[in-house]
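User: Structure tokens for this complex, please. No commentary.
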Amino acid sequence: MATAKHAAFLCFSILCVVLWSSRPIYAQTKPAFACDIAANPGLKKFRFCDTSLDVKSRVDDLVKRLTLQEKIGWIVNTAKGVSRLGIPNYEWWSEILHGISFIGPGSKFMGPVPGATSFPQVILTAATFNVSLFEAIGRAVSTEARAMYNEGLAGLTFWSPNINIYRDPRWGRGQETPGEDPLLSSRYGAAYVRGLQRREDGNKEKLKIAACCKHYTAYDLDDWKGFRRYNFNAMVSQQDLDDTYNPPFKSCVLDGNVASVMCSYNQINGRPTCGDRELLYGVIRGQWKLNGYIVTDCDSIHEMFNAQRFRATPEETAALALNAGLDLNCGSSLTNFTQGAVDRGLVNETVISRAVSNNFATMMRLGFFDGNPKNHLYGNLGAKDICTPATREFAREVARQGFVLLKNTKGSLPLSSTAIKNLAVIGPNAAATEAMLGSYFGVPCKYTSPLEAIKASVFNVLYQPGCADVWCAAPQVEDAKKIASEANAVVLIMGLDQNIEREALDRMNVTLPGQQELLITEVAKVSKGPVILVIMSGGSLDIQFAKDNPKIASILWVGYPGEAGGAAIADVIFGLCNPGGRLPMTWYPQSYVEKVNMTNMNFRPNPATGFPGRTYRFYKGKTVYPFGYGLSYSTFNHHLVEAPEFVTMPLEEAHICRTSICKSIDALDRNCNNLAFNIRLGVKNTGKFSGSHTVFLFSSPPEVHNAPQKQLIEFDKLHLMPQEEGVVQFKIDVCKHLSVVDETGKWKVALGQHILHVGSLEHTLNVRI
Ligand SMILES: *[C@@H]1O[C@H](CO)[C@@H](O)[C@H](O)[C@H]1NC(C)=O
Ligand SMILES: *[C@@H]1O[C@H](CO)[C@@H](O)[C@H](O)[C@H]1NC(C)=O
Ligand SMILES: *[C@@H]1O[C@H](CO)[C@@H](O)[C@H](O)[C@H]1NC(C)=O
Ligand SMILES: *[C@@H]1O[C@H](CO)[C@@H](O)[C@H](O)[C@H]1NC(C)=O
Ligand SMILES: *[C@@H]1O[C@H](CO)[C@@H](O)[C@H](O)[C@H]1NC(C)=O
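Assistant:
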């Protein structure tokens, strides 16, 4: 989404409040809704207001009453009310990536709702690998969203989550995503969407709020060396599209039942996604059967014309998108050019009725046409339900579960808060507040910075920022060294913020900015006690120097940990809880980004060009830390309890593979149904701390079809007390879990030896016929 303009507007409106008014300019108290029969009994005669009818009948009744101009008013984000039918204006654009954001004109923080709970940025939440947690966050933030809607301060349609694969470490929006793995991204997207949308009364037809999975598809470059998302033509192979880029979207629609998908700005193989009938009508609507609406990024129709010149006129561009299956335009292109497109015969009214019907159906499912929301489920929610102690505590808990311990020399972390008399806290992120939120933030309930939380935990804290900001152009090395040499232990809180990585800003390097490395190294030299390096960032960093430096005892990655992030950092440093997060993305060395073009969309390596491939699934080169990495204050071991040594694929008498040699079998073959087995693993906590442990089940398929070298096929997490043992069981469906996509996009089960890995355990499974 293009946020810059809106942010400017917002700053402007804050200025208005500050400069021109001593009182808050808050007047609205009523949520927008239609069919207010109590206030206007004349509406009772309309079938679309009759809550006893099904959604389709109500939508059909409504749409046939509308003029073309009225329909056009409801295919853009700032929808125009139809007062003769009791329908108010409505703003479709709100955001709820990790809490309600002020990006999007649909949500406002003012009056009774000065703030809302800001959970950690998604990349850190993903590091928890805790699927029930993903859903619980969705439930918590959607309750706040419903409460804000009741206060007249938010809409019901939210354009989150962002489930694009984090393909390249430089991407400024990688922080918004659940990382580089298609399975984790699929599980995250579906679970978060369920949490957002599912009503507590179990009514599946209706929605609590409407989520949106974005940006469909192969969108993960914002602005790099002159390549901009508005006109970038991503060259994507069918194989990468089907086995990497699209699975999170497919899962979001099929498993999460999401109410909306957003198409992206970029082109794929020469066609803009929002104008590609095969991608929209064919795949999302046709194959996946989306029950909801397809929306543009803001304003991708304009960019298709303006930046891409994909069609000669704005009318042809508007018609292209509508005919491709698009329903809603974030922006004004369809306001301005739809009538002209109809007049020129480029698009017909049937297509516009389809679009507006999908939009209205979503609003019906949200209860927008059911009269006063006060009388329905969630009608009692209000300001009192936002920023509750329980929700704020939950935000702190999520951060604690996500933190990834990257290095911990024995006897370093956790620090004893009673034994330490003087603790030096150094770094440009030590006093971070807004930086803790990451992008797509709103106004949080309250901040607890790391410095504040650490001060509350130990006897005496010495503090020096060390650098003026994260750019760290001219560090105050001597000041920092002075306090480091006086302290029993040092905590350095370094890393990035939104000035370095964000929407519309990709990184050039993956090293720490400016002189941060120098500051860290100089401080470490003079420290008497353990040096703890805390990295706050969304993207990965080449911190090989710190990994190798024996004076740096511990390294903790804290993502962008949300409003309570500082408290959670103190909880982990002082051992109130045990970190168990695992990296959801590969940490590459700087040499990787010097060698690889960000514009290269391939995942598979290419020996001919020296392209090394991407992500743990294909990249074989050196890493700083691999995907899935993360330590604990405890130790865990695994042993195999149950796993078969072979599975036999039943084939029909006449199957071609009975008579000729086959490398793989079609995974959609009907013989493939329900061919499943169990894998059971024993896990023991062999250390002294209780803690949570994530079990990853990877598979290395036989080398056919350019298959990944290794692929996550299941994961689970369990909490164990010291010396406790638990069992994890995975049900493996051969055709679902063990299949790979071939060069043409078909799912296949490779015959032969599949190596299953769990930690250092390896088990060979022979798939035969
Ligand atoms: C649509 O028209 C309005 C009003 O003239 C203008 O401000 C806006 O920029 C136009 N939008 C596009 C995408 O052309
Ligand atoms: C309207 O346009 C669509 C898409 O081009 C086409 O399939 C349909 O037949 C048209 N309908 C009418 C009534 O012309
Ligand atoms: C990133 O790398 C470029 C090119 O090597 C260099 O000019 C620039 O100073 C580096 N930026 C940072 C922030 O380290
Ligand atoms: C990177 O992209 C540039 C510009 O498109 C191209 O000239 C160059 O050959 C590419 N390098 C590699 C290693 O692919
Ligand atoms: C997952 O998160 C939930 C909610 O915070 C928590 O109760 C549970 O213990 C977590 N699971 C594990 C295995 O840590």
